[in-house]
Amino acid sequence: MISDFWQEPISPENGLMPSSLLVVEDDETIRETIRDALTLEGFEVTACGNGRDALQSLQRASGTEDSFALVVLDLMLPGLGGLELCRQLRKAGDATPILVVSARDSEADRVLGLEVGADDYLIKPFGMRELVARCRALLRRSSSGASPSKQVVHGNLCLYPEECRVTRDGLDVNLSPKEYRLLELFMQYPRRVWSRDKLLEQVWGHDYFGDSKTVDVHIRWLREKLELNPSAPEHLVTVRGFGYRFG
């Protein structure tokens, strides 16, 4: 239903430079709702209902002044599916940013979408404000001329080492520097068991002489921010008698 997506009206921004977006969605109601919301924000929007038409539109526009700045892509499409469209675009060297919007909400689906070439993944139902914000973020990243940030992905968590940033289910998580360094270490060495002393050495440094229980405190804070159920963690696991591991 439209009400599931359009949670509240959006006002256009006067300062936004027009960008050409391609929306690929087979559900007409959702497609038109997204088109209307993005148009109100000042974007030039082309919409189509299947992967074949989307691929042809992208190929025709590639390298011209009409090329698309961003693709908003559903995965469940008739004919050429969204995942295969991503694969074909990336294989052909097309670096157009892709924002996947999908009802597929499992961890495996999100990871697969990112691995085949999507730049972001938004789960249905969603609010139009969040969709617009995700589009703007991808466009800013693309227009900066910087290479896409390297990512370390594990389940619903994504760590961007070059940006010192972490997302959970696509949303930024506010971490302190020590929390970030702990998580970065864990995610770079999944399944490895770390003792408290080793974690203190790696994150706090050799000259730290405080109580090792500070590790336990920071682990607890991380669990509260990252785990669905902090009392039964899936990411940051206690290994009795040894320390902690990730995953």
In short:
This protein has 247 residues and is α/β, with parallel strands linked by helices. Helix content is 40%, strand content 18%.
Explain this structure to me?
The protein has a 5-stranded parallel beta sheet with strand order 2-1-3-4-5, sandwiched between helices. The protein is elongated and about 60 Å long. It has 247 residues and is α/β, with parallel strands linked by helices. The protein folds into 2 domains: 2-146, Response regulator (Rossmann fold); 157-246, Arc Repressor Mutant, subunit A (Orthogonal Bundle). The protein has helices spanning 2-5, 28-40, 51-61, 82-91, 107-115, 128-143, 177-188, 196-204, 213-226, and strands spanning 20-24, 44-48, 70-74, 98-102, 120-123, 152-154, 157-160, 165-168, 171-172, 236-239, 243-246. The protein contains 9 helices and 11 strands.
